[in-house]
Each structure stands twice: as C-alpha cells, then as structure tokens.
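Lecture notes, part 5. Sequence design as translation. It can be helpful to think of inverse folding as translation between two languages: the language of shapes and the language of residues. The source text, in structure tokens, appears below.
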C-alpha cells in the first residue's frame, strides 16, 4: 500500500439537506486530499448507475467506505442499487472476480433510534451487531476485509458537541488509515470461493 492510501467514500443519504450528521461527515472527508467522496443521490438522481466509472474508482481505492443512514435495518435503496450494478459476477466475485480482493471496507452509519433501542429490551429487539451479517458477507464474497463499523445512534437528537466529537473521530480514522491500533488484531478476509456451477457465466 502506498504512503498515501486512496480512500473512496460512497455516501448515500436520500435527503442530505436534512442530515446534520452525514453532511458533516462528507465535508470532513472532502477536506482530506487522498479521499474521494461521492454523493450517490446527487450523482444519480435518476438511479442509473454508471457501473464502469464506479468500478474504476473502486478498483483504485485501498479503502472503500459505505456511509449512510440505516433504513429498515439495512441500506438506502440507491446504495443497494450500487451494490447490484457495480459488484458484478466475474468482476467483484465468482470466477475471475478479484477486482476488490485485498482491499478494506469500512461501514459508517447513523441510526434514528438511540443505542438502547438496539437491545433485547428495546423496540428493535436485537443488538445492532445482529443487523451486520449481510454487510460482512457481502464484503467477504468480494474479498474485502470488513473493518469495525463506526455507528452513531440517535442521529436526530445528537448534541452539537457530540456531533463535533464524532466527526473528529471520522476524520482521524480517514487521515490515519491504515495505521489503526486494532488493525493487527483483525482477522484476514475469509476466502469465499463461488463454484462455477452455482453462478455460471454466460459462456458456460
């Protein structure tokens, strides 16, 4: 990895005008020279993803960041569409799909509910980690190491002081990547080989 790693932030907020947190995070990312921030809802208002452009940017990055608010325990629709259109068979996974192998993926999300809402006694019934396996397995299938997510609960009610502190953590993480203290303790990405019989190519 180069001395100044390339970082690609894919931000997906359906109504950024009304988001203090995600807007502030995007601005923090844009202030760093080696970070490219792409506002997916601004780039693709018609929901037509330019897959070759997105693939080229992702292939050049050392760290890919998925930044979005949690919608129905998952990602906003345009972020999901990005996955569908960009992470294609034979490019991101499956036979010959090694374009992203060895890179890192960092999930940066906000929730409307407070942290206590994500517990067996809260109205969401599960700890927040219970909603992460689809993200983790998507990363693994593409050969991406899934880094510990950065989560801000109760985004609607966060105080200015807490918001500033959260943004500073985000900026520090981006500016110091990959020199994070926990990196040495992280497991390598599991190998998920897809048999050709499960996802045959058009020529098969």
């Amino acid at each position: 990895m180069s001395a100044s790693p390339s970082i690609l932030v894919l931000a997906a907020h359906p109504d950024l005008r009304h988001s203090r947190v995600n807007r502030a995070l995007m601005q923090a990312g844009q202030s760093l020279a080696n970070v490219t921030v792409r506002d997916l809802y601004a780039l693709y208002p018609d929901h037509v993803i330019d897959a070759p452009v997105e693939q080229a940017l992702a292939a050049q990055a050392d760290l890919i960041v998925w930044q979005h608010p949690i919608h129905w325990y998952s990602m906003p629709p345009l972020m999901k569409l990005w996955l569908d259109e960009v992470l294609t068979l034979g490019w991101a996974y499956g036979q010959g799909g090694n374009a992203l192998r060895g890179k890192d993926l960092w999930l940066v999300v906000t929730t409307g509910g407070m942290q206590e809402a994500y517990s067996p006694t809260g109205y969401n019934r599960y700890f927040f980690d219970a909603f992460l396996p689809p993200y983790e397995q998507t990363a693994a299938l593409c050969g991406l190491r899934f880094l510990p997510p950065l989560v801000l609960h109760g985004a609607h009610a966060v105080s200015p002081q807490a918001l500033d502190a959260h943004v500073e953590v985000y900026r520090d993480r981006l500016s110091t990547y990959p020199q994070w203290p926990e990196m040495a303790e992280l497991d390598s990405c599991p190998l998920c080989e897809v048999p050709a019989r499960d996802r045959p190519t058009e020529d098969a």
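The translated text above is only one of many valid answers, since several sequences can fold into similar shapes. The first strand starts at residue 7 and ends at 11.
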